[in-house]
Design a protein that fits this description.
Strand order of the largest sheet: 1-2-3-6-7-8-9-12
Helix content: 25-40%
Shape: globular
Number of helices: 6
Distance between the termini: 43 Å
Strand content: 35-45%
Amino acid sequence: MSKLASARYGKDNIRVYKVHRDQETGMQTVVEMTVCVLLEGEIDISYTQADNSVVVATDTMKNTVYIMAKQHPVTPPELFASIVSTHFIETYKHIHAAHVKVITHRWTRMTIDGELHPHSFLRDGTETRDVEAVAREGQGITIRSAIAGLLVLKSTGSAFHNFVRDEYTTLPDVYDRILSTDVDCGWAWKRFSGLDQVKSMVPKFEEAWNSARNITLKTFATDSSPSVQNTMYKMCDQILAAAPAVDAVDYSLPNKHYFEIDLSWHKGIKNTGKDAEVYAPQSNPNGLIQCTVTRQGKLSKL
């Protein structure tokens, strides 16, 4: 005998673009997002009995996102995701949880002849600002904010040595190496009682994102890294200190390797150790280092 253990469904890859036009200054501001909505609740019979009477159509979810974007601010994304998720659990009484993920794509204002252009932008990287808000009936709203796809590299200032060595080990100790990674950094906020409390925190969302990004870049650049593990822990510790309303910080950092190329076979060219200048970037396999750092004691609500 089988039983439906869990279920959620929704609409993914909802593309949204919104422009704000300042009539006084003539400056325009643009935001482009990709939104995913997933709903949970009393929807079992749609799976087990082919009864669609409990199904909020995914096309309806798409339309709702567009309407919410017209009627409400879309920045910061923590607020917009909370507005959309709260709408679904308040509008449909049989829906008890709504997961809303917002990926904000980069559009950076152009500088032309030393002046910020009023309506022209460029995409200066694949980095995104990601947010997932989950509104649960009677339990408030949880939010995880994140930086994703931030590609960084430093050509020195990283080492890795004194690790476990046994009969399976071929990797030599390295005291100076190239370090590169795609940063995926997230921070989980203390639980919010509801949408009003999220609204009261709007300035803190921007502050935390700026702090997390600046801490990530500064620590990556300036730390004489003995390992990716230690450097990422330092980043987490600093973000927790900078954002008191955050309960936990997590990182996932792939180690993008650059290997020296031995060119001694060609006329004795020296290109290893202190003479290394030409490297071969590696696509895979790669190291993957992850951690989550929390505050001491029980996680709490705001």
